Amino acid sequence: MNLIDQRFAELKQQQKTALIPFISCGDPTLDDTIDIIKTLEEAGADMVELGVPYSDPLADGPVIQRASERALQHAVTLKDCIELGSRLRQQGVKLPLILFTYYNPIYQFGLHAFFELLKQHDISGLIVPDLPIEEDQELRQLAEHNNIHLIPLVAPTSNERVTRITKQAKGFVYCVSSLGVTGERSDFHAEIDQFLNLVRSASDVPIAIGFGISSREQVARFEQKCDGVIVGSAIVRTIESNVPLLRDPATKAEGLANIHRFVAELRG
Ligand SMILES: O=P(O)(O)OC[C@@H](O)[C@@H](O)c1c[nH]c2ccccc12
């Protein structure tokens, strides 16, 4: 069984919603990423999106772009990000791991080699935000063949495509709360609740919401309606403000404790 399904099944029994942080791998260094993910797990995260830093990230807001830039200063590669999987397992991290990458790095790497590596390093899920359903057949087939869940994104503007996208979903459906780029915000799409109802009725797998969620109140609002809540920029910004502490061995523990506090608060 795929670890993502297993975790959602456990959470359902406990009547809990998954908290799914997104982080940029290698921000500020790959070693820090390992310590940060251990911290996320301890603070109550249920799975994690491993963002692959990319130089041309169309849908990323400023916070995630800056994180990518910090990581790319020491040339973090797609391979480094995937290999984090085994390094995390060696450290005892049990969280299901979801790789988040734009399509071009996968294409450059070669699809078959890419899936081999994902399997080798215990990655359970994959999100490719710039690959539309009309063009994802090859990737989808390889993912299914390797028991890696290709998690689709649906937006309030997907309209008649919602059913088609949702029907094919594996792992969970990623519902985008609002339009534009990632980043914290105070308002969501006006018809967000109707949209979530629509996805819920069309979906056989859990549904999760992300984009702009940054506070305990917002997480709580969506816990009522969704099986998972994704938080990216708010956590990445917390990491950013602790970079000076993380960089100094004497204060690293304090930086990690600050990240722990924020994530535990989101978990509630
Ligand atoms: O940062 P936010 O607003 O919390 O949104 C989630 C998010 O960071 C992550 O899932 C993500 C990062 N880049 C993206 C691009 C498209 C869709 C989603 C994403």
From TrEMBL:
GO cellular component, one term: cytosol
Main EC class the enzyme belongs to: lyase
Pfam families, per database record: Trp_syntA
Gene Ontology molecular function: any one: tryptophan synthase activity
Biological pathway: Amino-acid biosynthesis; L-tryptophan biosynthesis; L-tryptophan from chorismate: step 5/5
List of catalytic residues: 49 (proton acceptor), 60 (proton acceptor)
Record-stated family: Belongs to the TrpA family.
The protein's assembly and partners: Tetramer of two alpha and two beta chains.
UniProt xrefs under HAMAP family: Trp_synth_alpha (MF_00131)
Protein name per UniProt: Tryptophan synthase alpha chain
Protein species of origin: Paenibacillus montaniterrae
Organism classification: Bacteria, Bacillati, Bacillota, Bacilli, Bacillales
Gene that specifies this protein: trpA
